[in-house]
Specification:
The protein has about 190 residues and is mainly α. It has seven helices and no strands. The termini are far apart.
Length: about 190
C-alpha cells in the first residue's frame, strides 16, 4: 500500500504541478467534463441510427447499459467500499494540489470518468473496430486524455484513473460481447 501511495503522490505531482502549462490549464477543465463531449454523443447516436437502422435500438440500448454499469459500479459499489479521499480532500496532501475545478464531495477510487469513458470507448471499438480501424487509437486517446485531465485538474490520483480504465475496458468488452450476440441472434446479422 505504501508503494502505491508513493507512486500516486509522485505521478500526481508530475502531472498536476510540474507538468502544468497555460494551454492545458485552459482546456483540461472542459476536456474532462462529460458535457463538453455532448456533440460527440449526439453524433454517435445519429450515426448509428442512420447507418445501422435495424440494429440501432440494440446498439444504443447496450451503449446505455454500458454507461449505467460503468457509472454505478464505480460510484455506488467501489468508491464507497474503498472510501479513498480525493487528493484535494486529503488533509496531508491537499496543500500540494493545484486545483483547477471544484474538488467535489465524492470519493476518489476509482474514477467514474475513467471507467465510463473507457467503457464506452471499448464498447464502440468492440462493435465497430473491424470496420473502422482508426477507432482503437482514437478511442484510447480520447478516454486516456480524459483520464489524464482528471489528474491534471487535481481531483484524482493516477491509480484512480488507471484502475477505472481497466474496469471500464472489462465492462465495455462484456457489454460489447453481449450486444454482438444479441444482435446476431435476434436479427441474424452476420456482421456481428
Amino acid at each position: 500500500m505504501e508503494q502505491l501511495q508513493s507512486f500516486d503522490f509522485f505521478w500526481f505531482l508530475m502531472i498536476n504541478d510540474i507538468g502544468q502549462n497555460a494551454f492545458l490549464d485552459a482546456i483540461m477543465p472542459f476536456w474532462r467534463d462529460e458535457f463538453f463531449w455532448m456533440p460527440l454523443y449526439v453524433f454517435f447516436v445519429t450515426f448509428v441510427w442512420l447507418n445501422y437502422r435495424r440494429q440501432a435500438p440494440y446498439i444504443l440500448l447496450f451503449a446505455l447499459i454500458t454507461v449505467v454499469l460503468t457509472d454505478q459500479i464505480a460510484s455506488q459499489l467501489i468508491k464507497p467500499y474503498f472510501g479513498r479521499l480525493r487528493p484535494c480532500r486529503d488533509v496531508v496532501f491537499a496543500d500540494a494540489v493545484r486545483l483547477l475545478i471544484p474538488c467535489g464531495s465524492g470519493k476518489s477510487f476509482v474514477s467514474a470518468h475513467a471507467t465510463s469513458h473507457f467503457g464506452i470507448a471499448t464498447y464502440i471499438w468492440w462493435l465497430f473496430g473491424s470496420e473502422f480501424k482508426w477507432l482503437l487509437p482514437v478511442g484510447v486517446f480520447w478516454a486516456g486524455s480524459i483520464c489524464y485531465g482528471q489528474v491534471y485538474v487535481g481531483v484524482h490520483y493516477p491509480s484512480d484513473v488507471i484502475f477505472g480504465a481497466v474496469l471500464g475496458i472489462c465492462i465495455g468488452l462484456w457489454t460489447g460481447y453481449w450486444a454482438r450476440r444479441w444482435i446476431k441472434s435476434r436479427l441474424n446479422f452476420e456482421k456481428y
